[in-house]
Amino acid sequence: MIKMKRTVTGILALGVAMTCGCDRHSTKEVFYLVTANAALPYWQTAAAGFNRAAGQYKVTAKVVGPDNYDPQAELAELQKAVATKPAGILISVADAAVLQPEIDAAINAGIPVLTIDSDAAASRRLYFIGTNNLEAGRLGGRRLTEKLTGKKNVVIFTIAGQPNTEERLKGLKDALSSRPDISIVSVVDVKGDPKTAFDTAQQLLAQTGPKKIDGFVCLESASGKMVSDALKRANATDRVLVAWDVNQDTLDGIKGGTIDATIAQKPFTMGFVGLKSLDEIFHAPPRTLSKDYSVDSFAPYPVFVDTGSSLVDKNNVDLYIASAAEGTK
After folding, report:
1. What angle do CA 221, 226, 230 make, to 5 degrees?
2. What are φ and ψ of residue 156, in 5° steps?
3. How confident is the model at residue 72 (pLDDT cuts 50, 70, 90)?
4. Cβ count within 10 A of residue 203
5. Domains identified in the chain and CATH numbers
6. In angstroms, rounded to a whole number, what is the distance separating the alpha carbons of residues 42 and 192?
7. Residue 223, Cβ neighbours under 10 Å: how many?
């Protein structure tokens, strides 16, 4: 009887522990999101997802990163985060060559690291959460092939060297390979400066005859509004602009007709899933962080979590506008 009582007492105690949530989480657990361009609405949305998950788990979230495209400044923020020995780090990689050594150093120090939005596939990060950028680039390219007929010239705005934009460019070229009459005449590296996109678009819009630019594609979120503004100022209603992401300005451009379509990603989801994934790793760590789980058939982690992408045009833009309004509540 005494033994049975002890058993029952033990079960009841376990039940109480499970229902009260006995401190699996704590505000002393600190998770970092290191972004590549914190001033962009895109990254503010990702931060909102990161913070939402932290609020649910009652842990501490810190969002850091330069306000412009600056891989070296991002590296400095990552180094500061690693020095605090946090519970985990989520990072978007502006330049893999610059950031990979410190990502590896964090793993070696026992700090879980996941990448979002832009990957460093050769690093020791555990896995990547974000868009299938190759397929998203193909999606944008297919839109161009639908909208442009005959011999046409296209210009691409991008950030050269950033892993995600490089994959998008490859996907775009894949899609355009079926249309040899569509020529990519220039790939413009805006280096994270939207003004570069505006000034360049204005210059290109002045070209006529065989050099006329018929299509514009922006492979990152900052350029879409700038190119849209240049098209509007030039009253160039016969050109096709495919943008990236669903900033309010971009959605307004689709409504107004200066942007034909944009490729939507899910930065909120990346931040939200990223923190929850780091939390799970922190509380149920593997025997070693430094193992290459991508070649382990029995790995506890995926190689890639696809958060999805889609094409937004005038037919469904109102759904995205409503979704954005709901998400801010």
Report:
1. 145
2. -110, 135
3. very high
4. 11
5. 24-131+266-291 (3.40.50.2300), 133-264 (3.40.50.2300)
6. 13
7. 30
Give the start-end residues of each E strand in the chain. 30-34, 60-64, 88-91, 113-116, 128-130, 152-158, 182-189, 215-218, 240-244, 261-264, 304-306, 310-312
Quick: pLDDT tens for 259-296: 999 999 999 999 999 999 999 999 999 999 989 999 99
In angstroms, the Cα distances linking 183 to 150, 178, 212, 215 are 11, 11, 11, 10
Q: 3-state DSSP call for residue 222? A: coil
Residue 32, strand partner residues: 62, 89
Instruction: Measure the CA dihedral 268/188/192/120, to 10°.
Output: 60
The token pair that represents 218 in the structure block = 């922006």
Q: Which structure tokens are listed for 327?
A: 């998400």
Q: Read out DSSP for 281-304?
A: HHHS--S-SSS-GGG-TT-SS-SE
Q: Position 7: which residue type?
A: T
Mean pLDDT score of the chain: 92
pLDDT, one tens digit per residue, over 11-50 is 333 333 333 444 678 899 999 999 988 988 999 999 999 9
CA-closest candidate to residue 34, choices 83, 84, 73, 5: 73
Question: What is the percent of the chain with per-residue pLDDT over 70, rounded to a whole number?
Answer: 92
Q: How far is Cα 137 from Cα 172, in angstroms, rounded to an integer? A: 4
Give me the half-sphere count of Cα atoms (radius 13 Å) on the Cβ side of residue 247: 20
DSSP secondary structure string, 238-277?
T-EEEEES--HHHHHHHHHTS--EEEE--HHHHHHHHHHH
Sheet holding 60-64, edge to edge: 60-64, 30-34, 88-91, 113-116, 128-130, 304-306
